[in-house]
Amino acid sequence: MKTGVSLLRCGKCGKGFNPFGAHVCNGNRKGRTRVKPTLSLGDCPKCGKPRGNPLTHTCTPKSDFKARQRDRDRQAAAEKRKAKAAAKRRAEAERRKAATARRRAKEAARRKAARDRRKAAAEAKRKAPARPARPPHDYRTCTDNSCRRYACLAWKEAWQEGRSSGLDDGWDIGYDAAASGRPRNH
């Protein structure tokens, strides 16, 4: 600890100085140098300010530590929020990718099963013996009264109408007339 005694106070800068020592004045006020004895106990080793009275000196180092600490805490909290949001986005993207993969796998399995069923049906159809061909069925010679084929039904119905109106006899007459060369009376 450095101590000092000064008898004079500078009128320009207000600092105490010893007339026998060097004084560098950096003040710009107008004033007179006064006789004012002061005792200096030196500068504080922590803050660098002069200590007038050691009992009343409060060390206030000029530092932006608190501001830097607040900035650092604020940045850390922002980075933590960003990391949490990014992790949440990544988890959501992974969940969507997994759901899409499950959906695609399910759709592929469904398509594969359908394809396998189609192949099996085609293979069974190819390997099955051919259905025997139906025997030829002429509607004009059908004598089955319970035959439900459309052509047979239409023929039988028309035949009955023709018989009831006498066309059968007319055919015979017309045929004989055509064969003999006689004119027909219509």
Note the main attributes of this structure.
186 residues; mainly alpha; three-stranded antiparallel beta sheet; 3 strands
Provide a descriptive summary of the structure in words.
This protein is mainly alpha-helical. Among the domains are: 1-62, no CATH class; 150-179. 49% of the residues lie in helices and 8% in strands. It is built from three helices and three strands, in the order βββααα. The chain has helices spanning 65-127, 150-164, 167-180, and strands at residues 4-9, 16-17, 34-40. It is rod-shaped.
Number of strands: 3
Which stretches are low in confidence, meaning pLDDT under 50 for 5 or more residues running? none
Describe the main β-sheet briefly.
3 strands, antiparallel
Going across the major beta sheet, what is the strand order? 2-1-3
Summarize the structure.
This protein has three helices and three strands. With 186 residues, the protein is mainly α. Among the domains are: 62 residues, no CATH class; 30 residues.
